[in-house]
């Protein structure tokens, strides 16, 4: 183990909750997908899927004429 307990970066601590609502068919599709591909941690799966799409869109939109800095989700000025 390379990182000692208690030495976690407080900025990266997940403390903000967001709730998503799905209809029955959407939920069944997610459950089927997770079962088919062996996904046991749905929270991690959804978080990574959402952030992957966001980062991909940021990358597609960069550079623009009026933006001077690339968005950074982990460090705020």
Q: Portion of residues in helices?
A: 40-55%
Major β-sheet profile = none
Tally of helical runs: 2
Mean pLDDT: 83
How many beta-strand segments? 0
Order of helices and strands: HH
Radius of gyration from CA coordinates: 17 Å
Structural class: mainly alpha
Shape type? extended
| Fraction in beta strands | under 5%
Distance between the termini: 31 Å
Description:
The protein is built from 2 helices and no strands. By secondary structure, it is mainly alpha-helical. The protein has a domain of 25 residues. The two termini are 31 Å apart.
List the helices and strands and how they pair.
Blueprint: H1 24-36, H2 42-61
List keywords for this structure.
single chain, 77 residues, mainly alpha, 2 helices, 0% strand
What's the quick description here?
This protein has 77 residues and is mainly alpha-helical.
């Amino acid at each position: 183990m390379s990182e000692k307990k208690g030495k976690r970066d407080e900025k990266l601590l997940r403390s903000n909750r967001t709730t998503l609502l799905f209809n029955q068919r959407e939920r069944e599709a997610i459950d089927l997908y997770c079962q088919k591909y062996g996904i046991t941690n749905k929270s991690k799966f959804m978080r990574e899927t959402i952030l992957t799409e966001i980062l991909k869109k940021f990358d597609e939109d960069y550079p623009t004429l009026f933006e001077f800095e690339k968005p950074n989700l982990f460090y705020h000025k």
